[in-house]
Amino acid sequence: MNGQPLTEQAPAAALRLGTRRSALAMAQSGMVAREVTRLTGRPVELVEITTYGDTSREALAQIGGTGVFVSALRDALLEGRIDFAVHSLKDLPTAAPEGLALAAVPEREDARDALVAAEGLTLDELVEKLAGAGRAARIGTGSPRRMAQLNAWARARGAQLETVAIRGNVDTRIGYVTGGELDAVVLATAGLNRLGRGAEISQHLDPELMIPAPGQGALAIECATADADLTAALAALDHAPTRVAVAAERALLATLEAGCSAPVAALATWSPENELQLDGVVGDPDGAALLKMSANGPIVLDETAEQQARALGHALAARLLDAGAATLMGERAR
Ligand SMILES: NCc1[nH]cc(CCC(=O)O)c1CC(=O)O
């Protein structure tokens, strides 16, 4: 730094990994940093990026959700203030940004949503217990997708359940349950596991009950396209089956022209025969109408695999649109 000549033993300069300050972002970035060092031998330093959305909850609601976090990291990448960034893939807009490469999609964590309920109860037990007490189960979530599927589940079995819109980080959300304001909250299993809080989950919500958000449980590692060496090095963290599965999920989302807060769910899973099964749901938050469809196809894991997966996603989205998905989502948007 101060003009000393480099010696042969000079350690490689640390790669700068830009991260938000939230506990989940720090946990995810820390895990990826260790993996990058293990696989490439390069040291990694965390660089905190503070966003407008981090400083103001009100602002976050107004400027439109998680997109602001992603943009701040992307600006830092494009301006060369950081070398790479880790995003929750489900928070990433479907449009590919100019000048940035999706260098790796590491192996997906558990994609399922999770119920965190008082006394460790399951959804069935909770609803039954509170019916006995003469009231509806109050379940917190800020996600129209989770609301739609919870309410549809309750309608189908005549259960008393009320969804309550909440915001905030994982601590705040679980605090509503431990503080007694709510009977349960729904969060992503992956986030809880990465925070070391998996033991607080009272029930994993299987896809039959709730299909997760497109890309849930997966991470995206992004860097500048111009940094070809780093793009190639980061590819060591890529997990092709995950990358291809989320390509199908995100193609469905993109074709429906829905954003990360839309009541759209999608999950692609691999069968042992290399068939990709894609399940998609579009609904309205009160669960009165829920469109659920599946598509599947054999996918060859070659260089066209993502293209094949996207075709599956587009085709399923087209079928959902034919069945009235646009009307369902349009009614919500207006
Ligand atoms: N929308 C916020 C967000 N973005 C990613 C995760 C969890 C981790 C993941 O899905 O990879 C969460 C929290 C949640 O939905 O509970």
Automatic annotation (TrEMBL):
Report domain Porphobilinogen deaminase C-terminal positions.
Answer: 245-321
E.C. number? 2.5.1.61
A GO CC term attached to the entry: cytoplasm
For this UniProt record, give its keywords in alphabetical order, as a comma-separated list.
Porphyrin biosynthesis, Transferase
Which N-terminal residues, if any, form the signal peptide? none
Q: Which family does it belong to?
A: Belongs to the HMBS family.
Put simply, this protein is called Porphobilinogen deaminase
Source organism (scientific name): Kitasatospora aureofaciens (Streptomyces aureofaciens)
Could you read off the lineage of the organism from its UniProt record?
Answer: Bacteria, Bacillati, Actinomycetota, Actinomycetes, Kitasatosporales
